Amino acid sequence: MWSLIVVACSILGPSLALPEVSYPFNSQFPTVARVDNPYDFQLAPSSFAPVGDGVKYALSGAPVWLSIDSTTRRLQGTPKVNDVGVSMFRISATDSSGTASMDAMLFTVMDPPPGLGEDVSSQLAKTEKLSGPRTVPIRSGAQFDIKFSRNTFADDGSRKRYYATSKDRTPLPTWLKFTPETLGFTGRTPDTTGPPQEFMIILIASEIDGFEAASVNFTIAVSPHELVFDPWENNLRLRGESGSTRNIKNTLFLDGKVAVNSDISRLSVETPDWIKFDDGVFRAAGGIPSSIQETTINVLAEDRFGNRASCVVRVKVDKDKLGLFRNDIGPIDATIGEEFRYTFAQSLFTRPDVSVEIVLGSASSWLQFDPRTLTLHGKVPTGLEPSKIPVKLIASSSSNFEDEEKFHISL
Ligand SMILES: *[C@@H]1O[C@H](CO)[C@@H](O)[C@H](O)[C@H]1NC(C)=O
Q1: Where are the domains of the chain?
Q2: Which one, of 57, 54, 53, lies nearest residue 21 by Cα?
Q3: Among 169, 217, 220, which residue has the most ligand 1 atoms within 8 Å of its CB, making it the best to mutate?
């Protein structure tokens, strides 16, 4: 194992001092090279420091298939079968004051690249509020505990090593602890006062010590204020030309309260011209192009403190079928340790003759559903952790047509 100690801090700007090795290649968890697959690994900007303007990077003694882009620091190339094995070479940085070089070691293997498994956004959204597809906002000075599933990486069996780094492959901030056994990130965010600060974290899985086979990333945004859309995803189901979303403006929360206009410095959406955004609600504006079946709209909001939050609206056009649900079922709140009761309105359905079934998932041990009164009831066990439980409502009409709607119960 190579030393993870960073010997010098990176100094920005032009310098007259000689470049030195600052952050060794093999401390950066470089990607494993794979036969017949293009290799692409960007060397950390802090690998050498100080470096002056116009610094150029080069390799010596590297396998012929591998080259480095002298300005972007990307190591690239495609190895062939007879390149399998270990390569030792040197990487150098040269600026007007001189040159520094470091040792590098790289593995080339036959195995195809591993795939990814369970989606990062949906994993995070199960327990956290999101301010972007993979961004978790956490208040300044707050404790946090973020866990990933072993299914984050497909075919996990062969990859028993997990690492985590910051963006640019540098070590994690000191306030963040990674536990490889649980794929958990815990800690307490710094006490920031100014504008939001974002920390990207890369979670790496590998079959080879100190290297990357696959990685995913997410971002922790630390700010004294929390701006989120809750829920983070919305549906616009268009049957024929009709359909609308819930009021998206009412799903934007600043510090836990629905954001008022004076909190928001910007709300931007880009919609195709056949969708209208009207005071928080998306709806079809007629003339849906026949080629369109699905599309996605991103909504971006910024508050007066500089926090940003985004949400997506997934548009599904269903031209033939008349759906059975008139609108989305939003998340339903339940309190841990308390009685819970919720009745679906008959007006949720587009027809009077529907019969309804429910798939309660992990809530089935404590929650019951009465299909006659369309009521959910039960006592939320005290031992449960705050989370979002996915539930599915299935409606069928007497003409044998079935439709379903997914939602969450938020604890
Ligand atoms: C972070 O993840 C996204 C989505 O998978 C990917 O496109 C991006 O390249 C990743 N960035 C880094 C620095 O790993």
Answers
A1: 20-109, 120-223, 226-320, 323-411
A2: 57
A3: 217
